[in-house]
Amino acid sequence: MLIERQNKVIPMGRQAELLGIARSTVYYEPRIDPYNLELMHLIDEEYTNAPFYGSRRIREILKRKGYFVNRKRIQRLMRLMGIEAIYPKPNLNKPHPGHKIYPYLLRNKSIEEVNQVWGTDITYIRMKHGWLYLVATMDWLSRYVLSWELSTTLEIDFCIRALNKALSIATPKIFNSDQGSQFTSVAFLHCLEERSIQISMDGKGRAMDNVFNERLWRSVKYEEVYLNDYTTVSEARQGIGNYINFYNQERPHQSLSYKTPSEMYFGSNNQKKRLDCVLSMAISVLTMGSTLFVFKDTDEKVSVEKTDLLQALSSGEKRALYILNIIFEVQARKDESQETLFIVDDIADSFDYKNKYAIIEYLKDISDEKNSYQIILTHNFDFFRTLESRFIHYDYCFFVEKTSREIKINQASYIKNPFKDWIKHLNDNKKLIASIPFVRNLIEYTGNSDDDDFMKLTSLLHIKSDSDSITKSDLEDIYNHVFPSMVLRLDDKDKKVGELIFELANECLTCTGSINLENKILLSVAIRLKAEKFMFDKVSDKTEFSVNQTGRLFQRFKDEFSGQSSELDNIKLLERVNLMTPENIHFNAFMYEPILDMSDEHLKNLYKKIKKVH
After folding, report:
1. What spatial distance separates the first Cα and last Cα of the chain, rounded to whole Å?
2. Burial grade of 465 (CB within 10 A; 0-12, 13-18, 19 or more)
3. What is the residue extent of each domain of the chain?
4. pLDDT digits over 430-461, tens only?
5. Residue 593's closest CA among 242, 337, 356?
6. What's the chain's Rg over C-alpha atoms?
7. For labeling, which of 22, 46, 52, 91 is most exposed (least CB within 10 Å)?
8. How do residues 18-29 score in pLDDT, each as one tens digit?
9. CA–CA separation, 159 vs 118, rounded Å?
10. Which of 251, 589, 583, 596 is nearest to 442 (CA)?
Protein backbone atom coordinates (compact mmCIF):
# COMPACT_ATOMS: atom_id res chain seq x y z
CA MET A 1 0.00 0.00 0.00
CA LEU A 2 1.35 3.43 -0.96
CA ILE A 3 -0.80 5.27 1.60
CA GLU A 4 1.20 7.30 4.17
CA ARG A 5 -0.99 7.15 7.27
CA GLN A 6 1.16 9.61 9.21
CA ASN A 7 1.05 12.29 6.49
CA LYS A 8 -0.45 15.40 8.11
CA VAL A 9 -0.65 17.41 4.86
CA ILE A 10 -2.66 15.08 2.61
CA PRO A 11 -5.60 13.23 4.24
CA MET A 12 -5.81 9.48 3.60
CA GLY A 13 -9.02 9.91 1.61
CA ARG A 14 -7.29 12.37 -0.74
CA GLN A 15 -4.27 10.04 -1.02
CA ALA A 16 -6.62 7.22 -2.04
CA GLU A 17 -8.22 9.50 -4.65
CA LEU A 18 -4.82 10.50 -6.08
CA LEU A 19 -3.76 6.85 -6.29
CA GLY A 20 -7.01 5.87 -7.96
CA ILE A 21 -8.01 3.34 -5.31
CA ALA A 22 -11.19 2.98 -3.27
CA ARG A 23 -11.28 4.59 0.16
CA SER A 24 -12.50 1.29 1.59
CA THR A 25 -9.05 -0.16 0.81
CA VAL A 26 -7.54 2.39 3.18
CA TYR A 27 -10.02 2.31 6.03
CA TYR A 28 -11.36 -1.24 5.90
CA GLU A 29 -10.55 -3.51 8.83
CA PRO A 30 -12.17 -6.97 8.83
CA ARG A 31 -14.22 -7.63 11.96
CA ILE A 32 -15.62 -10.98 12.96
CA ASP A 33 -16.77 -12.86 16.00
CA PRO A 34 -13.73 -14.52 17.68
CA TYR A 35 -15.34 -17.96 17.56
CA ASN A 36 -16.13 -17.61 13.85
CA LEU A 37 -12.55 -16.49 13.28
CA GLU A 38 -11.26 -19.60 15.08
CA LEU A 39 -13.50 -21.74 12.88
CA MET A 40 -12.23 -19.97 9.76
CA HIS A 41 -8.65 -20.73 10.75
CA LEU A 42 -9.48 -24.41 11.25
CA ILE A 43 -11.36 -24.55 7.94
CA ASP A 44 -8.39 -22.93 6.20
CA GLU A 45 -6.04 -25.60 7.58
CA GLU A 46 -8.28 -28.45 6.48
CA TYR A 47 -8.90 -26.95 3.04
CA THR A 48 -5.20 -26.27 2.48
CA ASN A 49 -4.48 -29.89 3.30
CA ALA A 50 -7.37 -31.28 1.22
CA PRO A 51 -8.97 -28.79 -1.23
CA PHE A 52 -11.50 -31.45 -2.28
CA TYR A 53 -13.20 -31.34 1.15
CA GLY A 54 -16.68 -29.86 1.11
CA SER A 55 -18.74 -28.36 3.93
CA ARG A 56 -20.13 -31.76 5.02
CA ARG A 57 -16.75 -33.38 5.47
CA ILE A 58 -15.25 -30.28 7.12
CA ARG A 59 -18.20 -30.25 9.55
CA GLU A 60 -17.41 -33.86 10.54
CA ILE A 61 -13.70 -33.11 10.95
CA LEU A 62 -14.43 -30.10 13.16
CA LYS A 63 -16.84 -32.24 15.20
CA ARG A 64 -14.00 -34.70 15.89
CA LYS A 65 -11.93 -31.79 17.17
CA GLY A 66 -14.66 -30.74 19.57
CA TYR A 67 -16.31 -28.02 17.47
CA PHE A 68 -20.02 -28.77 17.05
CA VAL A 69 -21.09 -26.46 14.23
CA ASN A 70 -23.99 -26.81 11.80
CA ARG A 71 -23.29 -27.07 8.10
CA LYS A 72 -24.92 -23.73 7.24
CA ARG A 73 -22.43 -21.84 9.37
CA ILE A 74 -19.53 -23.69 7.74
CA GLN A 75 -20.91 -22.89 4.29
CA ARG A 76 -21.29 -19.23 5.20
CA LEU A 77 -17.73 -19.01 6.53
CA MET A 78 -16.36 -20.81 3.47
CA ARG A 79 -18.13 -18.28 1.26
CA LEU A 80 -16.63 -15.45 3.31
CA MET A 81 -13.18 -16.99 2.91
CA GLY A 82 -13.78 -17.67 -0.78
CA ILE A 83 -13.27 -21.44 -0.81
CA GLU A 84 -15.29 -24.38 -2.08
CA ALA A 85 -14.53 -28.06 -2.61
CA ILE A 86 -12.72 -29.12 -5.82
CA TYR A 87 -12.94 -25.66 -7.41
CA PRO A 88 -11.51 -23.23 -4.88
CA LYS A 89 -12.47 -19.61 -4.29
CA PRO A 90 -15.91 -18.96 -5.80
CA ASN A 91 -15.70 -15.42 -4.44
CA LEU A 92 -12.01 -14.84 -5.11
CA ASN A 93 -12.28 -15.98 -8.72
CA LYS A 94 -15.85 -15.22 -9.71
CA PRO A 95 -15.70 -13.39 -13.06
CA HIS A 96 -17.44 -10.10 -13.60
CA PRO A 97 -20.37 -10.49 -16.05
CA GLY A 98 -18.90 -7.89 -18.42
CA HIS A 99 -15.30 -9.10 -18.30
CA LYS A 100 -13.64 -11.00 -21.12
CA ILE A 101 -12.66 -14.64 -20.43
CA TYR A 102 -9.65 -16.17 -22.22
CA PRO A 103 -9.09 -19.88 -22.97
CA TYR A 104 -6.66 -22.09 -21.06
CA LEU A 105 -3.51 -22.31 -23.22
CA LEU A 106 -1.34 -24.67 -21.19
CA ARG A 107 -3.01 -28.06 -21.49
CA ASN A 108 -0.34 -30.60 -22.59
CA LYS A 109 2.10 -27.72 -23.18
CA SER A 110 5.76 -28.32 -22.33
CA ILE A 111 7.37 -25.55 -20.26
CA GLU A 112 11.06 -25.45 -21.07
CA GLU A 113 12.41 -22.00 -20.17
CA VAL A 114 12.05 -19.26 -17.58
CA ASN A 115 9.62 -16.45 -18.43
CA GLN A 116 7.76 -18.79 -20.77
CA VAL A 117 4.79 -19.05 -18.39
CA TRP A 118 3.89 -17.03 -15.32
CA GLY A 119 0.93 -17.70 -13.03
CA THR A 120 -0.90 -15.72 -10.39
CA ASP A 121 -3.44 -16.51 -7.68
CA ILE A 122 -4.99 -15.14 -4.46
CA THR A 123 -5.28 -16.93 -1.11
CA TYR A 124 -6.69 -16.30 2.37
CA ILE A 125 -4.14 -15.48 5.13
CA ARG A 126 -5.34 -15.85 8.69
CA MET A 127 -4.46 -13.42 11.49
CA LYS A 128 -5.16 -13.45 15.21
CA HIS A 129 -7.98 -10.92 14.94
CA GLY A 130 -8.92 -11.04 11.26
CA TRP A 131 -7.57 -12.01 7.89
CA LEU A 132 -5.79 -10.76 4.76
CA TYR A 133 -5.56 -11.74 1.11
CA LEU A 134 -2.23 -12.60 -0.52
CA VAL A 135 -1.57 -12.43 -4.26
CA ALA A 136 1.64 -13.71 -5.86
CA THR A 137 3.12 -13.95 -9.34
CA MET A 138 5.29 -17.01 -10.04
CA ASP A 139 7.47 -18.22 -12.89
CA TRP A 140 6.26 -21.76 -13.52
CA LEU A 141 9.51 -23.36 -14.68
CA SER A 142 11.70 -22.13 -11.81
CA ARG A 143 8.93 -21.73 -9.16
CA TYR A 144 10.46 -18.29 -8.49
CA VAL A 145 8.05 -15.86 -6.81
CA LEU A 146 8.50 -12.67 -8.82
CA SER A 147 6.19 -10.48 -6.74
CA TRP A 148 3.57 -10.55 -4.01
CA GLU A 149 1.19 -8.16 -2.26
CA LEU A 150 -1.13 -8.21 0.75
CA SER A 151 -4.51 -6.52 1.07
CA THR A 152 -7.39 -6.34 3.52
CA THR A 153 -9.90 -6.46 0.65
CA LEU A 154 -10.28 -8.15 -2.72
CA GLU A 155 -10.23 -4.93 -4.72
CA ILE A 156 -8.11 -4.96 -7.84
CA ASP A 157 -5.36 -2.50 -6.93
CA PHE A 158 -3.13 -4.91 -4.98
CA CYS A 159 -3.24 -7.42 -7.88
CA ILE A 160 -2.15 -4.73 -10.35
CA ARG A 161 0.68 -3.63 -8.05
CA ALA A 162 1.96 -7.20 -7.85
CA LEU A 163 1.71 -7.58 -11.64
CA ASN A 164 3.61 -4.36 -12.32
CA LYS A 165 6.35 -5.37 -9.88
CA ALA A 166 6.78 -8.66 -11.73
CA LEU A 167 6.74 -6.97 -15.15
CA SER A 168 9.53 -4.64 -14.00
CA ILE A 169 11.76 -7.73 -13.81
CA ALA A 170 10.90 -9.45 -17.11
CA THR A 171 8.08 -10.16 -19.58
CA PRO A 172 6.56 -13.64 -19.92
CA LYS A 173 5.27 -15.19 -23.11
CA ILE A 174 2.12 -16.53 -21.41
CA PHE A 175 0.40 -15.27 -18.27
CA ASN A 176 -2.02 -17.67 -16.52
CA SER A 177 -4.66 -16.89 -13.89
CA ASP A 178 -8.08 -18.06 -12.81
CA GLN A 179 -11.28 -16.36 -13.95
CA GLY A 180 -11.55 -14.11 -10.90
CA SER A 181 -12.89 -10.62 -11.42
CA GLN A 182 -9.53 -9.13 -10.42
CA PHE A 183 -7.75 -10.94 -13.26
CA THR A 184 -10.47 -10.44 -15.88
CA SER A 185 -10.77 -6.69 -15.22
CA VAL A 186 -9.98 -4.27 -18.04
CA ALA A 187 -7.20 -2.57 -16.04
CA PHE A 188 -5.43 -5.85 -15.24
CA LEU A 189 -5.70 -7.26 -18.76
CA HIS A 190 -4.49 -3.97 -20.25
CA CYS A 191 -1.14 -4.39 -18.44
CA LEU A 192 -0.70 -7.71 -20.27
CA GLU A 193 -2.18 -6.78 -23.65
CA GLU A 194 -0.03 -3.68 -24.08
CA ARG A 195 3.06 -5.92 -23.80
CA SER A 196 1.63 -8.51 -26.27
CA ILE A 197 1.58 -11.21 -23.56
CA GLN A 198 -0.61 -14.22 -24.32
CA ILE A 199 -3.35 -14.56 -21.69
CA SER A 200 -4.44 -17.95 -20.33
CA MET A 201 -7.20 -18.60 -17.82
CA ASP A 202 -8.01 -21.73 -15.82
CA GLY A 203 -11.03 -23.68 -16.95
CA LYS A 204 -13.91 -23.49 -14.48
CA GLY A 205 -13.98 -26.55 -12.27
CA ARG A 206 -10.27 -27.24 -12.85
CA ALA A 207 -8.41 -26.27 -9.69
CA MET A 208 -5.24 -28.06 -10.86
CA ASP A 209 -4.79 -25.77 -13.88
CA ASN A 210 -2.87 -23.44 -11.55
CA VAL A 211 -1.18 -26.20 -9.57
CA PHE A 212 2.15 -24.40 -9.03
CA ASN A 213 0.54 -21.48 -7.23
CA GLU A 214 -1.60 -23.90 -5.17
CA ARG A 215 1.59 -25.68 -4.06
CA LEU A 216 3.11 -22.32 -3.14
CA TRP A 217 0.11 -21.53 -0.91
CA ARG A 218 0.49 -24.88 0.83
CA SER A 219 4.17 -24.17 1.54
CA VAL A 220 3.53 -20.59 2.70
CA LYS A 221 0.80 -21.67 5.10
CA TYR A 222 2.39 -24.80 6.57
CA GLU A 223 5.91 -23.41 6.82
CA GLU A 224 5.10 -19.81 7.84
CA VAL A 225 1.52 -18.69 8.44
CA TYR A 226 0.33 -21.60 10.62
CA LEU A 227 3.48 -21.38 12.74
CA ASN A 228 2.84 -17.73 13.64
CA ASP A 229 -0.04 -15.73 15.04
CA TYR A 230 0.02 -12.37 13.26
CA THR A 231 -1.58 -9.55 15.24
CA THR A 232 -0.93 -6.73 12.74
CA VAL A 233 -0.67 -6.36 8.99
CA SER A 234 2.98 -5.30 9.34
CA GLU A 235 3.80 -8.52 11.21
CA ALA A 236 2.15 -10.56 8.47
CA ARG A 237 3.95 -8.57 5.77
CA GLN A 238 7.35 -9.09 7.42
CA GLY A 239 6.78 -12.77 8.15
CA ILE A 240 5.50 -13.62 4.68
CA GLY A 241 8.20 -11.47 3.07
CA ASN A 242 10.92 -13.28 5.00
CA TYR A 243 9.44 -16.65 4.08
CA ILE A 244 9.12 -15.88 0.35
CA ASN A 245 12.72 -14.67 0.39
CA PHE A 246 13.72 -17.98 2.02
CA TYR A 247 11.54 -19.89 -0.47
CA ASN A 248 13.23 -18.17 -3.43
CA GLN A 249 16.82 -18.06 -2.22
CA GLU A 250 17.41 -20.98 0.18
CA ARG A 251 14.71 -23.64 -0.10
CA PRO A 252 15.87 -26.38 -2.56
CA HIS A 253 13.13 -28.07 -4.59
CA GLN A 254 13.25 -31.76 -5.42
CA SER A 255 11.52 -31.09 -8.75
CA LEU A 256 14.32 -28.62 -9.59
CA SER A 257 17.06 -31.21 -8.92
CA TYR A 258 17.46 -29.61 -5.49
CA LYS A 259 18.23 -26.16 -6.87
CA THR A 260 16.54 -23.10 -5.40
CA PRO A 261 14.02 -21.13 -7.49
CA SER A 262 16.48 -18.22 -7.57
CA GLU A 263 19.24 -20.43 -8.98
CA MET A 264 16.88 -21.74 -11.63
CA TYR A 265 15.44 -18.36 -12.56
CA PHE A 266 18.55 -16.16 -12.62
CA GLY A 267 21.14 -18.80 -13.50
CA SER A 268 24.70 -17.47 -13.71
CA ASN A 269 23.50 -13.87 -13.32
CA ASN A 270 22.02 -14.57 -9.90
CA GLN A 271 24.56 -12.58 -7.86
CA LYS A 272 24.39 -9.58 -10.15
CA LYS A 273 20.59 -9.53 -10.00
CA ARG A 274 20.63 -9.64 -6.21
CA LEU A 275 23.09 -6.76 -6.01
CA ASP A 276 20.96 -4.76 -8.43
CA CYS A 277 18.04 -4.86 -5.99
CA VAL A 278 20.02 -2.50 -3.72
CA LEU A 279 21.32 -0.25 -6.49
CA SER A 280 17.88 0.02 -8.11
CA MET A 281 16.93 2.41 -5.34
CA ALA A 282 19.52 4.91 -6.56
CA ILE A 283 18.64 8.44 -7.63
CA SER A 284 19.59 8.98 -11.30
CA VAL A 285 22.64 11.22 -10.81
CA LEU A 286 24.34 12.10 -7.53
CA THR A 287 27.18 14.64 -7.44
CA MET A 288 29.42 13.70 -4.50
CA GLY A 289 31.41 16.21 -2.45
CA SER A 290 28.78 18.91 -2.94
CA THR A 291 25.46 20.04 -1.48
CA LEU A 292 24.11 20.17 -5.06
CA PHE A 293 22.13 17.24 -6.42
CA VAL A 294 20.98 16.66 -9.97
CA PHE A 295 17.54 15.23 -10.73
CA LYS A 296 17.29 13.66 -14.19
CA ASP A 297 14.01 12.84 -15.96
CA THR A 298 14.42 11.63 -19.59
CA ASP A 299 16.50 14.40 -21.26
CA GLU A 300 15.85 17.12 -18.68
CA LYS A 301 18.13 17.88 -15.72
CA VAL A 302 17.40 20.14 -12.75
CA SER A 303 19.82 21.13 -10.00
CA VAL A 304 18.41 20.74 -6.49
CA GLU A 305 19.84 21.94 -3.18
CA LYS A 306 20.29 19.20 -0.60
CA THR A 307 17.93 20.85 1.92
CA ASP A 308 15.19 21.12 -0.72
CA LEU A 309 15.79 17.55 -1.82
CA LEU A 310 15.44 16.14 1.70
CA GLN A 311 12.15 17.97 2.18
CA ALA A 312 10.76 16.48 -1.03
CA LEU A 313 11.93 12.90 -0.52
CA SER A 314 9.75 10.25 1.10
CA SER A 315 11.15 8.17 3.96
CA GLY A 316 11.94 5.35 1.52
CA GLU A 317 13.78 7.69 -0.85
CA LYS A 318 15.76 9.19 2.03
CA ARG A 319 16.81 5.66 2.96
CA ALA A 320 17.90 5.07 -0.63
CA LEU A 321 19.96 8.28 -0.55
CA TYR A 322 21.55 7.17 2.70
CA ILE A 323 22.48 3.83 1.14
CA LEU A 324 24.00 5.59 -1.84
CA ASN A 325 26.17 7.76 0.37
CA ILE A 326 27.47 4.65 2.13
CA ILE A 327 28.18 2.88 -1.17
CA PHE A 328 30.09 5.84 -2.61
CA GLU A 329 32.06 6.32 0.60
CA VAL A 330 33.06 2.65 0.62
CA GLN A 331 34.03 2.80 -3.04
CA ALA A 332 36.16 5.91 -2.48
CA ARG A 333 38.07 4.17 0.31
CA LYS A 334 38.56 1.07 -1.86
CA ASP A 335 39.88 3.18 -4.75
CA GLU A 336 42.42 4.83 -2.43
CA SER A 337 43.37 1.50 -0.77
CA GLN A 338 42.61 3.16 2.56
CA GLU A 339 42.78 0.86 5.59
CA THR A 340 39.30 0.88 7.13
CA LEU A 341 37.41 -0.87 9.91
CA PHE A 342 33.69 -1.04 9.15
CA ILE A 343 31.35 -1.59 12.11
CA VAL A 344 28.00 -2.78 10.77
CA ASP A 345 25.23 -2.67 13.39
CA ASP A 346 21.84 -4.38 12.80
CA ILE A 347 21.93 -3.76 9.06
CA ALA A 348 19.32 -6.49 8.50
CA ASP A 349 16.81 -4.43 10.48
CA SER A 350 17.81 -1.12 8.89
CA PHE A 351 16.80 -2.06 5.35
CA ASP A 352 14.01 -4.08 3.74
CA TYR A 353 14.71 -7.71 4.74
CA LYS A 354 13.91 -9.01 1.27
CA ASN A 355 17.28 -7.48 0.26
CA LYS A 356 19.12 -9.66 2.78
CA TYR A 357 21.15 -11.51 0.15
CA ALA A 358 22.13 -8.34 -1.69
CA ILE A 359 23.35 -6.88 1.62
CA ILE A 360 25.32 -10.02 2.45
CA GLU A 361 26.93 -10.16 -1.00
CA TYR A 362 27.92 -6.50 -0.63
CA LEU A 363 29.47 -7.14 2.80
CA LYS A 364 31.31 -10.09 1.30
CA ASP A 365 32.70 -7.86 -1.46
CA ILE A 366 33.99 -5.46 1.20
CA SER A 367 35.63 -8.31 3.10
CA ASP A 368 37.48 -9.40 -0.04
CA GLU A 369 39.32 -6.06 -0.14
CA LYS A 370 42.86 -6.23 1.21
CA ASN A 371 42.63 -3.24 3.56
CA SER A 372 39.04 -3.63 4.70
CA TYR A 373 37.99 -5.15 8.04
CA GLN A 374 34.53 -5.63 9.51
CA ILE A 375 32.76 -6.15 12.81
CA ILE A 376 29.17 -7.14 12.03
CA LEU A 377 26.61 -6.96 14.85
CA THR A 378 23.07 -8.30 14.60
CA HIS A 379 20.11 -9.37 16.74
CA ASN A 380 18.68 -11.36 13.84
CA PHE A 381 19.74 -15.00 14.12
CA ASP A 382 18.70 -15.88 10.59
CA PHE A 383 20.93 -13.09 9.25
CA PHE A 384 23.72 -14.24 11.58
CA ARG A 385 23.46 -17.82 10.33
CA THR A 386 23.44 -16.75 6.69
CA LEU A 387 26.59 -14.66 7.18
CA GLU A 388 28.36 -17.72 8.60
CA SER A 389 27.24 -19.87 5.68
CA ARG A 390 28.36 -17.32 3.06
CA PHE A 391 31.72 -15.92 4.08
CA ILE A 392 32.43 -15.63 7.84
CA HIS A 393 34.25 -18.63 9.27
CA TYR A 394 32.65 -20.34 12.27
CA ASP A 395 35.67 -19.51 14.45
CA TYR A 396 34.90 -15.81 14.04
CA CYS A 397 31.23 -16.04 15.04
CA PHE A 398 30.36 -15.12 18.61
CA PHE A 399 27.35 -14.69 20.89
CA VAL A 400 27.26 -11.77 23.33
CA GLU A 401 25.38 -12.08 26.61
CA LYS A 402 24.59 -9.25 28.98
CA THR A 403 23.68 -9.88 32.60
CA SER A 404 23.25 -7.49 35.51
CA ARG A 405 26.91 -8.01 36.40
CA GLU A 406 28.81 -8.59 33.17
CA ILE A 407 28.97 -8.80 29.40
CA LYS A 408 30.27 -12.12 28.05
CA ILE A 409 31.48 -13.01 24.56
CA ASN A 410 31.15 -16.75 23.81
CA GLN A 411 31.91 -18.88 20.79
CA ALA A 412 28.72 -19.20 18.73
CA SER A 413 26.75 -22.42 18.81
CA TYR A 414 23.52 -23.81 17.28
CA ILE A 415 24.37 -22.24 13.93
CA LYS A 416 23.64 -25.41 12.00
CA ASN A 417 21.42 -27.81 13.90
CA PRO A 418 21.35 -28.22 17.71
CA PHE A 419 19.97 -31.75 17.47
CA LYS A 420 23.25 -32.98 15.95
CA ASP A 421 25.01 -31.90 19.13
CA TRP A 422 22.35 -33.20 21.48
CA ILE A 423 22.17 -36.66 19.92
CA LYS A 424 25.88 -37.10 20.69
CA HIS A 425 25.50 -36.06 24.34
CA LEU A 426 22.27 -37.66 25.52
CA ASN A 427 23.76 -38.53 28.91
CA ASP A 428 23.56 -34.81 29.58
CA ASN A 429 20.07 -34.75 31.11
CA LYS A 430 19.22 -31.29 29.78
CA LYS A 431 20.08 -32.26 26.22
CA LEU A 432 18.20 -35.53 26.64
CA ILE A 433 14.99 -33.74 27.64
CA ALA A 434 15.44 -30.97 25.06
CA SER A 435 15.74 -33.59 22.32
CA ILE A 436 12.32 -35.12 23.08
CA PRO A 437 10.35 -32.76 20.77
CA PHE A 438 12.82 -33.45 17.94
CA VAL A 439 12.55 -37.23 18.28
CA ARG A 440 8.76 -36.99 18.60
CA ASN A 441 8.66 -34.94 15.37
CA LEU A 442 10.83 -37.50 13.58
CA ILE A 443 8.42 -40.28 14.53
CA GLU A 444 5.44 -38.20 13.42
CA TYR A 445 7.05 -37.23 10.09
CA THR A 446 7.75 -40.87 9.26
CA GLY A 447 4.05 -41.62 9.60
CA ASN A 448 4.08 -43.47 12.92
CA SER A 449 2.14 -41.03 15.09
CA ASP A 450 -0.01 -43.79 16.59
CA ASP A 451 2.74 -46.08 17.83
CA ASP A 452 3.79 -46.51 21.45
CA ASP A 453 7.01 -44.50 21.13
CA PHE A 454 5.16 -41.43 19.85
CA MET A 455 2.49 -41.71 22.53
CA LYS A 456 5.04 -42.03 25.33
CA LEU A 457 6.95 -38.95 24.17
CA THR A 458 3.65 -37.09 23.93
CA SER A 459 3.00 -38.07 27.56
CA LEU A 460 6.20 -36.24 28.50
CA LEU A 461 5.00 -33.01 26.85
CA HIS A 462 1.39 -33.26 28.11
CA ILE A 463 -0.23 -34.71 31.21
CA LYS A 464 -1.53 -38.20 30.38
CA SER A 465 -2.46 -41.19 32.48
CA ASP A 466 1.02 -42.70 32.05
CA SER A 467 3.06 -39.48 32.40
CA ASP A 468 4.22 -40.21 35.96
CA SER A 469 5.32 -43.78 35.17
CA ILE A 470 7.73 -43.13 32.26
CA THR A 471 11.39 -43.68 33.19
CA LYS A 472 14.75 -42.95 31.61
CA SER A 473 14.87 -46.64 30.71
CA ASP A 474 11.76 -46.08 28.55
CA LEU A 475 13.51 -43.16 26.85
CA GLU A 476 16.56 -45.32 26.22
CA ASP A 477 14.42 -47.96 24.51
CA ILE A 478 12.61 -45.36 22.37
CA TYR A 479 15.81 -43.68 21.17
CA ASN A 480 17.49 -46.99 20.35
CA HIS A 481 14.39 -47.96 18.39
CA VAL A 482 14.20 -44.67 16.46
CA PHE A 483 17.97 -44.62 15.79
CA PRO A 484 18.94 -48.27 15.10
CA SER A 485 22.59 -47.43 14.50
CA MET A 486 22.91 -45.77 17.92
CA VAL A 487 23.55 -47.72 21.10
CA LEU A 488 22.33 -45.49 23.93
CA ARG A 489 23.06 -46.41 27.54
CA LEU A 490 21.57 -43.98 30.04
CA ASP A 491 22.47 -43.92 33.73
CA ASP A 492 19.92 -43.87 36.56
CA LYS A 493 17.49 -45.85 34.40
CA ASP A 494 14.73 -46.02 37.03
CA LYS A 495 14.54 -42.24 37.35
CA LYS A 496 11.08 -40.90 36.53
CA VAL A 497 11.38 -38.50 33.58
CA GLY A 498 8.62 -36.23 34.90
CA GLU A 499 10.48 -35.70 38.16
CA LEU A 500 13.71 -35.11 36.24
CA ILE A 501 12.06 -32.39 34.11
CA PHE A 502 11.00 -30.38 37.17
CA GLU A 503 14.39 -30.83 38.87
CA LEU A 504 16.19 -29.56 35.79
CA ALA A 505 13.74 -26.67 35.37
CA ASN A 506 14.53 -25.59 38.94
CA GLU A 507 18.22 -25.62 38.05
CA CYS A 508 17.50 -23.42 35.02
CA LEU A 509 16.13 -20.71 37.31
CA THR A 510 19.63 -20.06 38.68
CA CYS A 511 21.44 -20.18 35.31
CA THR A 512 22.80 -16.82 34.15
CA GLY A 513 23.08 -17.53 30.41
CA SER A 514 20.19 -16.32 28.26
CA ILE A 515 21.10 -18.05 24.99
CA ASN A 516 21.01 -21.68 26.14
CA LEU A 517 18.45 -23.43 23.96
CA GLU A 518 18.14 -26.51 26.18
CA ASN A 519 17.14 -24.36 29.14
CA LYS A 520 14.38 -22.64 27.18
CA ILE A 521 12.90 -25.93 26.01
CA LEU A 522 13.12 -27.41 29.51
CA LEU A 523 11.38 -24.43 31.08
CA SER A 524 8.67 -24.50 28.41
CA VAL A 525 7.98 -28.21 28.96
CA ALA A 526 7.94 -27.79 32.75
CA ILE A 527 5.60 -24.77 32.52
CA ARG A 528 3.15 -26.65 30.33
CA LEU A 529 3.15 -29.75 32.54
CA LYS A 530 2.63 -27.69 35.70
CA ALA A 531 -0.20 -25.77 34.04
CA GLU A 532 -1.96 -28.91 32.80
CA LYS A 533 -1.64 -30.59 36.21
CA PHE A 534 -3.16 -27.52 37.84
CA MET A 535 -6.08 -27.44 35.39
CA PHE A 536 -6.80 -31.18 35.59
CA ASP A 537 -6.83 -30.95 39.41
CA LYS A 538 -9.40 -28.14 39.28
CA VAL A 539 -11.82 -29.05 36.48
CA SER A 540 -14.70 -31.44 37.01
CA ASP A 541 -14.24 -33.24 33.69
CA LYS A 542 -10.87 -35.06 33.80
CA THR A 543 -11.08 -36.44 30.23
CA GLU A 544 -7.83 -36.10 28.28
CA PHE A 545 -7.62 -34.72 24.75
CA SER A 546 -5.98 -36.46 21.79
CA VAL A 547 -4.90 -33.20 20.10
CA ASN A 548 -4.28 -29.60 21.21
CA GLN A 549 -4.67 -30.63 24.83
CA THR A 550 -3.32 -27.47 26.51
CA GLY A 551 -5.53 -25.11 24.53
CA ARG A 552 -8.68 -27.19 24.83
CA LEU A 553 -8.10 -27.91 28.52
CA PHE A 554 -7.67 -24.18 29.09
CA GLN A 555 -11.00 -23.56 27.32
CA ARG A 556 -12.63 -26.13 29.61
CA PHE A 557 -11.09 -24.40 32.62
CA LYS A 558 -12.37 -20.99 31.47
CA ASP A 559 -15.86 -22.33 30.81
CA GLU A 560 -16.04 -23.68 34.35
CA PHE A 561 -14.32 -20.90 36.31
CA SER A 562 -14.55 -17.64 34.33
CA GLY A 563 -17.44 -16.51 36.52
CA GLN A 564 -15.42 -16.87 39.72
CA SER A 565 -13.44 -13.78 40.67
CA SER A 566 -11.00 -15.89 42.68
CA GLU A 567 -9.83 -17.62 39.48
CA LEU A 568 -9.41 -14.55 37.23
CA ASP A 569 -5.67 -14.19 38.00
CA ASN A 570 -5.16 -17.89 37.30
CA ILE A 571 -6.98 -17.57 33.96
CA LYS A 572 -4.68 -14.69 32.97
CA LEU A 573 -1.64 -16.73 33.98
CA LEU A 574 -2.84 -19.76 32.00
CA GLU A 575 -3.44 -17.54 28.97
CA ARG A 576 0.23 -16.61 29.06
CA VAL A 577 1.16 -20.29 29.29
CA ASN A 578 -1.02 -21.11 26.30
CA LEU A 579 0.46 -18.27 24.23
CA MET A 580 4.13 -18.53 25.14
CA THR A 581 5.06 -22.19 25.45
CA PRO A 582 3.89 -23.93 22.22
CA GLU A 583 6.49 -22.24 20.00
CA ASN A 584 9.24 -23.31 22.40
CA ILE A 585 8.24 -26.98 22.44
CA HIS A 586 6.92 -28.10 19.06
CA PHE A 587 9.67 -27.07 16.68
CA ASN A 588 12.22 -28.68 14.39
CA ALA A 589 15.74 -28.01 13.20
CA PHE A 590 14.64 -25.29 10.79
CA MET A 591 12.58 -23.25 13.25
CA TYR A 592 14.55 -22.64 16.42
CA GLU A 593 15.93 -19.19 15.50
CA PRO A 594 13.12 -17.18 17.19
CA ILE A 595 13.76 -19.03 20.44
CA LEU A 596 17.43 -18.06 20.41
CA ASP A 597 16.59 -14.47 19.53
CA MET A 598 14.66 -13.91 22.76
CA SER A 599 15.73 -13.89 26.39
CA ASP A 600 14.63 -16.72 28.67
CA GLU A 601 13.82 -14.36 31.57
CA HIS A 602 10.12 -14.35 30.69
CA LEU A 603 10.12 -18.18 30.81
CA LYS A 604 11.82 -18.17 34.20
CA ASN A 605 9.30 -15.70 35.58
CA LEU A 606 6.40 -17.68 34.14
CA TYR A 607 7.70 -20.92 35.65
CA LYS A 608 8.05 -19.29 39.07
CA LYS A 609 4.45 -18.07 38.91
CA ILE A 610 3.00 -21.39 37.74
CA LYS A 611 4.88 -23.19 40.55
CA LYS A 612 3.13 -20.98 43.11
CA VAL A 613 -0.33 -22.03 41.97
CA HIS A 614 0.58 -25.72 41.71
Report:
1. 49
2. exposed
3. 1-26, 31-81, 117-264, 418-613
4. 999 999 988 988 888 776 667 889 999 999 99
5. 242
6. 27
7. 52
8. 555 555 555 545
9. 14
10. 589
